[in-house]
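sry for the spam today, last one i promise. struct tokens for design, 302 residues
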């Protein structure tokens, strides 16, 4: 088996991770989390989202967070923008990349962004155009690519359909997301393959939530296809507010440990990453969800 020599991780903890937190997390904590992630060697960080504060109150401080981060050269900062209103608001924060987010499931599209898949693409098209004109990169997140909390199993054809639509409006790269973490390796590979029919290998990333404990296996299955871009959350933070019961993304620490063990380069300092995870876990007042962090912290204490 030939795995990629190098993997790029987007830490989505500040956005996907924190969006689901009930207690308000101060902007200063989010800013320090971003700082600690870049100190640990992360080259891509999903910082916040420009969505309705009524829908996701935790992200209401988006402008403050974007204005407060100390940017480092060579690090890409991305933000979610579901529509032109969000995109226009995001511009002041000078994101390097914006993310439009759709779903392979009609029901999830309705619950998450209050419109059908077709309507979502109509809304995204002018956002994508405006971003590209402004020299901002565009990523498309595709939710529920293996399973949906409302529709159950999702056929790969639906993923291919969405990927094709994303491509047709100018989205440059896409995330294949297992929003509720129900995927298993072969199903995840099918969703990835359906996407790879529309996007090059370098432009497809894996975004696996770990609800059923399958995310590392699914990561390995994606690596097996040559996929080398992944999203994960430090300390395994998170979940989507519109996917009840779904837990966080796979922990970045766990993915980094897996990759290091396989001799795959990430450019990430695992010790510093664990410190970043401890910083946010202590703030939230609960233990990290990362198995690797737990193990290495126990070892440190000993
Ligand atoms: P809507 O209610 O259909 O939109 O929401 P609307 O155009 O009818 O506007 C209604 C109100 O929202 C108006 O305010 C607008 O101004 C305001 P009002 O007049 O009632 O005071 N509004 C906005 N405010 C701020 N920013 C905006 C914005 N747009 C409208 N951009 C909308 C549509 C998409 C905005 C809404 O449904 C929403 O915010 N949904 C939240 C979606 C979300 O953040 N979900 C979590 C992120 S996705 C995710 O986690 C999945 C991912 O990780 C991949 C995976 O794991 O699957 C990416
Ligand atoms: Mg997610």
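last one done:
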């Amino acid at each position: 088996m030939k795995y990629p020599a190098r993997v790029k991780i987007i830490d989505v903890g500040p956005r996907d991770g924190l969006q689901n937190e009930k207690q308000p997390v101060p902007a200063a904590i989010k800013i320090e989390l971003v700082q600690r992630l870049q100190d640990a060697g992360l080259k891509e960080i999903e910082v916040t989202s420009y969505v309705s504060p009524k829908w996701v109150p935790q992200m209401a401080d988006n402008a403050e967070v974007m204005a407060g981060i100390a940017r480092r050269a060579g690090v890409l900062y991305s933000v979610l923008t579901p529509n032109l209103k969000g995109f226009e608001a995001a511009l002041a924060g000078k994101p390097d990349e914006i993310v439009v987010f759709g779903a392979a499931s009609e029901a999830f599209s309705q619950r998450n962004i209050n419109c059908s898949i077709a309507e979502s693409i109509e809304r995204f098209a002018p956002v994508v155009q405006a971003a590209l004109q402004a020299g901002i990169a565009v990523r498309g997140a595709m939710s529920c690519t293996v399973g949906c909390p409302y529709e159950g199993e999702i056929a790969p054809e639906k993923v291919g359909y969405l990927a094709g639509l994303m491509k047709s409006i100018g989205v440059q790269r896409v995330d294949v997301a297992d929003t509720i973490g129900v995927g298993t390796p072969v199903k995840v590979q099918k969703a990835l393959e359906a996407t790879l029919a529309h996007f090059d290998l370098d432009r497809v990333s894996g975004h696996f939530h770990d609800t059923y404990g399958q995310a590392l296996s699914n990561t390995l299955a994606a690596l097996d296809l040559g996929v080398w871009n992944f999203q994960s959350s430090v300390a395994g933070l998170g979940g989507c507010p519109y996917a009840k019961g779904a837990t966080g993304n796979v922990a970045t620490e766990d993915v980094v440990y897996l990759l290091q063990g396989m001799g795959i380069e990430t450019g990430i300092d695992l010790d510093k990453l664990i410190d970043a995870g401890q910083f946010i876990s202590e703030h939230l007042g609960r233990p990290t969800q990362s198995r690797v962090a737990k193990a290495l912290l126990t070892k440190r204490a000993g």
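Residues 8-301 form a domain with the TIM Barrel fold (CATH 3.20.20.70). ok im logging off now
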